[in-house]
Write a structure and sequence with these properties.
The protein is an alpha+beta fold. It contains 3 helices and 3 strands; from the N terminus they run H-E-E-E-H-H. Strands 1-2-3 form a 3-stranded antiparallel sheet. The protein starts with a helix and ends in a 34-residue tail after the last helix. It binds zinc ion. The site of zinc ion has 9 residues, from helix 3.
Length: about 90
Amino acid sequence: MGEDDLADIDWESAVRMELEPDAIHEARDGYYFDCPECGSPATIDNIIEEGRCNGYLNEQVEGIDFEVENVSCTAVLRLEMAYTSGSEPET
Ligand SMILES: [Zn+2]
């Protein structure tokens, strides 16, 4: 999946979830989340660059004690960082 495909995604209707500290797992490669659809690891690099979990990409994660299985996952993933300056909202 390339950048053009990701641009077609309707992110307005996507499910959003807040990330709790225990949602983030550490591996030798870096950090990963669990794919909300298939439960595969989804490394931050793959979420940002491919928009897909490692199960879909059939890509192992260095430093975890289980094999990533190649699954047909339909989830398209994106990380967001929310930001506010901290000032009171205008009413
Ligand atoms: Zn998945």
